[in-house]
């Protein structure tokens, strides 16, 4: 993509400069293969509040240290925890805890547990204690295969995060993105830390605009395998994929409704890109409104009643809101002259988008109540912002040091993560929903 390419796009011949950028991809067969392009995570910054915590190695099996290391890495990535060194310290779930000793070491909280294996199945028991109040905050048991240990570790980190901060953790959620390596394109999903990537679609033609269903079981996306952009819905567990929008002209920018029964899409069937809704099975096409200029990049509000979208109806691209049932559109961004690629936080309190300032494409966040804006990134080429399902972080694509990377930033701008691909270019990221 060039610097002028927004996140969700259609064919260049029918779009203005600010909507240019459909890559060039065509269909491959679904392949649930593990990719070799693991992501490396670099972290900078700390949260306004940091909770001191020690995580001991889980006792009883050689995998206990690996489980603890994944939990430590998750907590570190959030920027909200200060890790007290407990590497090499092994405690089992029934250990008697010397609260004063851990408090003197600087740990207000201690996580620990046990792990055992029987016939290839692992049993993991975990505990979280408050060393100041000298009380247990959480304790639960998990079971799974060796392949499931990473997922279980993320789930434990989620529980720790929520018990201490009061906010649900997102470590066990997933992300989706497009990886380009040479002339090959892959639609991948991965853990939120960029690990465990799997290829959902491999192609010699472009795949753009992946969008998670609310239950996390399906992805909608745009593929160019038919020689033009067509919207597909793919079931992740089976690989089954169905074209749901293959109308005359361009079919692009799918976004799921909160109930998972409909999608908002953009069609140019009437010569100009306009917003429609369609049922998830491809039936029930309905035009939302009529505009003399381009409307694109729709996304539903959390209550499902309205759509947030990008339009140049005011002369420059800005972000608007319209009832799903149709009606008058209300402009909601007024800072700057170029704002695209909107995403609304799960609580609907904040809007994140790409803005062009001084020639750089940057990620901005706007409070929906006050209208106040904060520029979160410096650019020069940041795209495709997507909220974590707890609303605490934002995933986006970026060019840093000449490399295409995925990046994550906290909503207050304090904590930054860079998920760097070992090879290839990563773009079009979207953060998946809570699934349990």
TrEMBL record:
<dbReference type="Pfam" id="PF04052">
    <property type="entry name" value="TolB_N"/>
</dbReference>
<dbReference type="GO" id="GO:0017038">
    <property type="term" value="P:protein import"/>
</dbReference>
<protein>
    <recommendedName>
        <fullName>Tol-Pal system protein TolB</fullName>
    </recommendedName>
</protein>
<dbReference type="InterPro" id="IPR011042">
    <property type="entry name" value="6-blade_b-propeller_TolB-like"/>
</dbReference>
<dbReference type="InterPro" id="IPR014167">
    <property type="entry name" value="Tol-Pal_TolB"/>
</dbReference>
<comment type="subunit">
    <text>The Tol-Pal system is composed of five core proteins: the inner membrane proteins TolA, TolQ and TolR, the periplasmic protein TolB and the outer membrane protein Pal. They form a network linking the inner and outer membranes and the peptidoglycan layer.</text>
</comment>
<keyword id="KW-0574">Periplasm</keyword>
<dbReference type="GO" id="GO:0042597">
    <property type="term" value="C:periplasmic space"/>
</dbReference>
<keyword id="KW-0132">Cell division</keyword>
<dbReference type="GO" id="GO:0051301">
    <property type="term" value="P:cell division"/>
</dbReference>
<comment type="function">
    <text>Part of the Tol-Pal system, which plays a role in outer membrane invagination during cell division and is important for maintaining outer membrane integrity.</text>
</comment>
<dbReference type="InterPro" id="IPR011659">
    <property type="entry name" value="WD40"/>
</dbReference>
<keyword id="KW-0732">Signal</keyword>
<feature type="domain" description="TolB N-terminal">
    <location>
        <begin position="39"/>
        <end position="137"/>
    </location>
</feature>
<comment type="similarity">
    <text>Belongs to the TolB family.</text>
</comment>
<dbReference type="Pfam" id="PF07676">
    <property type="entry name" value="PD40"/>
</dbReference>
<keyword id="KW-0131">Cell cycle</keyword>
<dbReference type="InterPro" id="IPR007195">
    <property type="entry name" value="TolB_N"/>
</dbReference>
